[in-house]
Amino acid sequence: MSDRERDWDFYLRTVSNSARDSSFANDPASDPSLLHAVKKLCDFCRQEEKYSEDLVARVYPHINKLFQRSIASLSQPTSPNGILLLVILQFFLDFGEVVLHDADPSLRTFFRSCLSREFADPVVAAATLDFLNVNKNKLLFSFPNLLPQFFPLLLKLIAWNGEKLEKAFLKVFPGLVSPGSFLPLFPSLVDLPILVVALEKVERSSGSLIGSSIASIQKSAAPEMLLALMDEAYTGSTIGDGGGDSESEESSTIDVADPVFLELLKDENDGLAERHWTSPGVAAVLQASINSPQSDRLKQILSITPRLLDMYFTIALRDANNSLICALIPILMARNSTLFPDKNYMYEVRRRLLEFMLASFQRSPDFIALLKKPIVDRLGEAYDSPEKTELALQLCWAVGEHGGGGGSHKDAARELFESLELLLYENLSSSRLGLRQESINSDSRNFRKSSQSRLLCFVITAIAKLATYHRELLPRARVALGKVARSRISDSRVWRRARDYLGLMDDPAICLSVLGPSQPSHGHPHNPGTVNWNDGGTKMIAHIPFYILGEQEGPPFHDFSFPDILPRRR
After folding, report:
1. What is the spatial distance between Cα 233 and Cα 563, in angstroms, rounded to a whole number?
2. Phi/psi-derived region of residue 527, left when phi > 0, alpha when psi is between -120 and 50, beta in every other case
3. pLDDT value at position 346?
4. pLDDT tens-digit profile of 105-125?
5. How many whole angstroms separate alpha carbon 298 and alpha carbon 294?
6. Dist. CA 221–CA 446, nearest whole Å
């Protein structure tokens, strides 16, 4: 017998003994030689091309039985089973066709029974991402629903292990996005910092996360954990203090079976669930995170999440259909003002939300008409907070820029126009944004005044653009802009802009050039704001602006003639 045959026989006997009822049967991973033996057997099967099928057929029954015993031992592990199971799964993927083994149930069993218990183990987490990257194409082709189904569990890998796994996770991330996971994935990404805080609280109250199923923790310890969270938030005591106030009457009146908390810690995608940010559990988590120093793990996820959103939005614009993007935009609007309370994080995430929303409107202007109800609702909230004011500003710009959805959506454009009118008249009736100037200091009053002026400029521009696109709205636009021009409010930029727009409306061709849509539309084969100079030698160019918006008054300041700017025929 050759050395190679002796090695094969030794490794096969090692696996066979462990698969049977031996001293290691209760926890096969506790045998340090077993992992090495399984790896060597897999190598033999790959290297022996001539006898590969025979070798695979001989080793498969033992490997399969070992997999089942390893899964069964997870309830009382003495060492992590993840690495051993990943090696076995690689065998199933490589040789499943030879032995007619469907790897899908085995993969799902690994995620549900093993990774859900060992995601916090950095070695298992790194090995899992390496396994997914090596087999990425095979998994996406043969099991396209696997990663999208378990994206909440995979997000725990990056949430708990942080930047050291970011590069590997970004390679896996596109596989998490599918039609079924596209919408639920967005709230989970935005809430990654809250997931980190929740996991850290679970660890404090229930011990190490390695080897313990979150599902079992939820069933057994969730009420006590949430009471402790609330106690920390409202009394200042930590979870480990065990102070007497933890059983206070205030805490006992709160519903501790908080669905939002359980939603954050789930392992599988079960659809888009509404997350109530006013619930006691979430309020307690947020308050506790504000009152205590940020952990290194939380700091890392606050930095990683915007980069994950960049990839998510890139995939969305490239691969998602219009129906999914249209359904996503109202979720973006709702989450714009409900983010983890970290100043830099909120800025980075909101910037990406608004950029994606505007890019979506640019790609499909019809979205504005289809989403007129949520847009109108957000315009009505422009006074509530600075972040809602900024969202209203961007929506005003989009409504005007894209003509309320286009020429075929006149009813929607009229409704949006009426909402802009209402917002304009509400602003004209007051020089405040929802707050009494007497109740705020000078700096805050100046900020509110500046915000109102900016909002007014956006609103009157949107009104003028809508009326330029939909000519039937011109009379109402003239009335609205006339009121602003005559108001002579303290900020001259506002009423002067309204006056300039009124002047533009007296010259329809020039008005179309300056205020018309930036994209070609029906009846306008060229961009309205672009002069086609090549036609200048044969027909009149009617949309050359002879004055520039701003503070220019009097006759035109240019001194050129048409022959200077029109091409000459040679």
Report:
1. 75
2. beta
3. 94
4. 999 999 999 999 999 999 999
5. 6
6. 50
